[in-house]
Design goal:
Elements (H helix, E strand, L loop, with lengths): L1 E5 L10 E7 L13 H13 L9 H27 L9 E10 L2 E12 L1 H15 L3 H14 L8 H10 L2 E10 L4 E11 L1
Antiparallel strand pairs: 1-5, 2-3, 3-4, 4-6, 5-6
Helix pairs in contact: 1-2, 2-5, 4-5
Length: about 200
């Protein structure tokens, strides 16, 4: 079973620049790695900025690089945190985080991608949220989610990180849900965030 939602980019050319990181749940439990998420996200953002060097003392070049670095770091951190938070603890399937730098004629796109396995109850809730996200105004949904979180202090699946990617960073989001193994069943969710540079 494979399902696609939002603006998912299926085929990624391997002749463009990319970087992939993998996190194996077998070596150290995923939750113990939580403090490393920001470090990994910053590494990816630093890696990307090497492709956008600062031109001398030009302040606009410095500002653009700093803004791009901030956006990529935020999105990479959110994708990695979500992947670890909602990872199926019974699965040995690794969590993957990648960044791709794609040039399509005159458009330069930074694509961040995270993949993790999920349990059936988590998947059902996430699919319901994806449906709501893709059929709602993101700014209005952000307000509703804030209000919902204020009412339920124990909620940890607010979707605010995804909504911030859309509202603050103009990211285009897409998802692929795929059964990658039958016995025992392993279902993965791949989230893609695209930023036009």
């Amino acid at each position: 079973m494979t399902q696609i939602f939002g603006e998912y980019r299926e085929k990624l050319p391997n002749d463009h620049e990319f970087l992939l990181l993998g996190f194996s749940p077998r070596s150290i439990p995923i939750q113990q790695r939580w403090r490393n998420n920001g470090l990994s996200a910053d590494f990816i953002a630093d890696y990307l900025t090497t492709f956008f060097p600062i031109n001398g003392e030009e302040s606009s070049s410095q500002e653009k690089q700093a803004e791009l670095k901030s956006g990529v770091s935020y999105i990479a951190n959110e994708l990695l945190e979500n992947s670890m938070k909602f990872h199926d603890q019974t699965s040995s399937h690794p969590i993957k985080l990648g960044i791709y730098l794609l040039e399509d004629t005159t458009v330069l796109t930074v694509l961040l991608q995270a993949t993790n396995s999920v349990s059936p109850p988590t998947l059902d809730k996430f699919q319901a949220f994806i449906h709501e996200l893709t059929n709602s105004d993101p700014e209005e949904l952000f307000i509703r989610q804030l209000e919902k979180n204020a009412e339920d202090e124990n909620s940890y699946a607010s979707g605010l990180g995804l909504l911030t990617m859309i509202n603050d960073w103009n990211a285009k989001l897409g998802w692929k849900i795929e059964t990658v193994q039958q016995e025992p069943e392993v279902v993965t969710v791949t989230t893609v965030a695209q930023l036009v540079v």
